[in-house]
Amino acid sequence: MSQLEQIIKQRKSVRSYDPQFQIDKREILELLSIAANAPSSSNLQPWRFIVIQNKELQKEIRTLGFNQAQIEESSAIVAVIGDSEAYKNVEKIYSLNVEKGYMDQSIADRTIKQTLNAYPTMPKEGLKEIAAYDAGAIAMQFMLLAKDRGYDTITMGGFDKDAFAKRFDLPDNLFPITLIAIGKALAPAFNTSRLPIESLTTYFD
């Protein structure tokens, strides 16, 4: 079994954390930076983050998260935020691709034009769905990277998203998707079963 397979199987949703254990801010940012290699629609990277490592603020956010203890007791909370206007960064992103030699200018220009023709005309709900889908990819990569370094995580979609957005004065284009607690487990997570993949898959050969 490869190391990646072991990490995937070992990562569980931990709900009990050592409140005294702290992860250095620089390491959290490093984990996010590596996780940001996740794929996204048109490479627009529609994810934003709010990292909360202040215990008083974690206690406050716990009230918005239906009193889930891990929000307050973990080393940090990483809020994954979606940006429904991520397409506005397309020129910056693709100009950097050209600068780094990843593609030539004609491909970048064509992609920029296609993006600016398509995305602004989409319904906002469609743009939010794209951002939420892409956020799932980076959230999973972040949690696997955390496990690889010996940390534990849990992702939480159950919190008052409207109140959270208001608390942090999020503009209309930014919306909270999930909270990820990261820290050191105080008690092991429950093991969990999985349905047989054959019962979930239609296969044509």
UniProtKB/TrEMBL annotation:
Nitroreductase domain location: 8-184
Domain of life: Bacteria
Keywords associated with the record: Oxidoreductase
Keyword flag Oxidoreductase: yes
Keyword check for Signal: no
Classification via InterPro entries: Nitroreductase, Nitroreductase-like
Any one GO molecular-function label of the UniProt entry: oxidoreductase activity
Pfam families: Nitroreductase
SUPFAM superfamilies, A to Z: FMN-dependent nitroreductase-like (SSF55469)
Family, per entry: Belongs to the nitroreductase family.
Name of this protein: Nitroreductase family protein
